[in-house]
Structures are given as C-alpha cells and as structure tokens.
Amino acid sequence: ALCGRECQSHVWEMMGRMACPVTDGVSTAGIGLVLKELAEAGHANDTLVIYSSDNGIPFPNGRTNLYQPGLAEPMLVHSPVHRQRWGQVSNAFVSLLDITPTVLDWFGVPYPSYSIFGKDKLVHLTGRSLLPVLEMEQPWQTAFASQSHHEVTMYYPMRALHHLQYRLVHNLHFKMPFPIDQDLYVSPTFQDLLNRTVGGRPTHWVKTLGQYYYRERWELFDTRADPGEIRNLASDPRYRPLLEEMQGQLRKWQWLTHDPWVCAPDGVLEDQGPYKLQPQCLPLYNQL
User: DSSP for the chain?
Assistant: First the structure.
C-alpha cells in the first residue's frame, strides 16, 4: 500500500493490528513515536517511510521456509512527494532486496562501483528501486528468495523463484530433515503436531510431520489454483517446460549474485586458480 498523510492514521492502525498478536502493541507504540519525532523535527513532509518485517509468520510452513507463509511480509511505503498513488495498492512483485536501491535513489546516491570477496566484477544490486512504483504501476512479476540457515544449527539451504502465479523452491539438502528452530519447537502449534504424530492421531493439517521434515528436491506450485501449496507439480510432465524455464531463471540469478551454492547439491563450484576467469560447476557423481 502506498499512502499519503490523510490516510496515515488508518495505515498505521492497520499495521499495529498486524503486529499486535506478536508484539502486544509494542510495534504500534514504536511507529507512533517515530512519526511523532519526524513531525517535531520538521521532517514529516520530506521523509520516505518504509514499513516491512524480516520474515513471515512463526508457524510451520512460515518463518525459515520459502513457501508463501514464510515469505509474506508487509511492505508499506509512504512518500510525501509521490501524491499520485496515495492510498493505492500495488500488485508489483517486490522484496527486501529492493530497499537498498530505493534508499539510494531517494537520496540521489550512486549505486556501488566496487568489487567484494576478491571478485573482479563490480557489485551489482539485484533489487529494484521502489520509487517508480510510487509514480505508476509496474509490470514486475518475478521475485527471488534464499535461505541458508536461521539458527547456527539449522543449516538447510534453499533457493526460490516466484514468477506470475508459480513458485519454484529448490531444496538443496532435501535428503536431510528440515530443521526446527527453538522458538517454533516450544510453540503450542508445533507441540500439538508432535503429540498428535507420536500418538498416531491426525494432525488436522495439510501435511504430516514427516512430509514437513522431508521434502522433494524441486517443488513447483501454482499458487493461484493451489494457494496452500499442497500439490507439487515438479514431476508432472505437463509442467516440464515451465519447470525447466524457471530452473534456468533461478540458476541465472544465482550466478548473477555469486551464490556459493549455485552448483549444489550435485556439483561443486570452482572459481579459483585456472577457473577464476570462467567459474564452472564440476560434477560430484553423488547420485543426486
């Protein structure tokens, strides 16, 4: 949502309701204090305000997952100078990667022109500035996501691509059980799943605990026809062309972002020595 001053109170009240179940109103009070400080400092009309979160809801399929409940985050932006879209909702695909170029554009700061990690190529921001969305709707229909670990013991690298209504998830360590973080484990929701599973009773969920732990390497979902992401289409021959196209898009993005896991799990990335100028994926012959 992109909102102007006359509807700020409604937006912040809405965001407070979103946050209250988790923070008991702390977020609401904090937002109010920030806006109050901006107004008292005389910057209410020259400040770009961005509200989002670090992950989705802390439930199974949510936080630490690359399914919709794990990726769905609020993204509300208020610009005092882009009045033409105040109070509107955008359907453009955006992500947290877009915050850096947005802030740089807002302040008129040039994008990075240096290299890191000993790479010869210059840094390339893969996010997009959100400022064009504040002017008019953009036809952005693709977004990428990645997760490697949440807690230090929760190593489970995943990469994902959402294009149009389709989501592709690559579970690189699909042979391993999906790890559970400490907060989720002690939650009533997960304890109920555990107790029902141990007792041989139905979980009343779309998945069994075993299905949640052990996943296919590739998961492809039509989120429009299957919003619960229950039916994996990756092995369906009818979706083979789409699967291969999205796999190619995801792999291209991994190369672009210098992803160390670009060759995993059935290959190893060689980008040093004789491979420095032309990095390659070399096979591991691990039967994956």
Answer: -B--GGGHHHHHHHHHHHHHHHHTTHHHHHHHHHHHHHHHTT-TTS--EEE--SSS-SSTTSTTS-SHHHH----EEE-SS-GGGTTB-------GGGHHHHHHHHHTPPPP----TT-SSPP---S--SHHHHHS-----EEEEEEEESSTT-EEEEEEEEETTEEEEEETTTTSPPP--HHHHTSHHHHHHHHHHHTT----SSS-HHHHHS--SEEEEETTT-TT--S--TT-GGGHHHHHHHHHHHHHHHHHTT-TTTTTTTEEEE-SGGGSSS-EEEE-----
Question: Is a pLDDT exceeding 50 seen at residue 19?
Answer: no
Give me 222's structure tokens: 């039509």
β 166-171/155-163 pair status: antiparallel
Q: Tell me what percent of the residues of the chain surpass a pLDDT of 90.
A: 68
d(CA 251, CA 235): 19
Q: Report whether 241 contacts 249 (CB < 8 A).
A: no
Residue 25's pLDDT is 55
Confidence at 26, pLDDT banded by 50, 70, 90: low
Using 50, 70 and 90 to split pLDDT, how confident is the model at 11? very low
Q: Are strands 218-222 and 267-270 parallel, antiparallel or unpaired?
A: unpaired
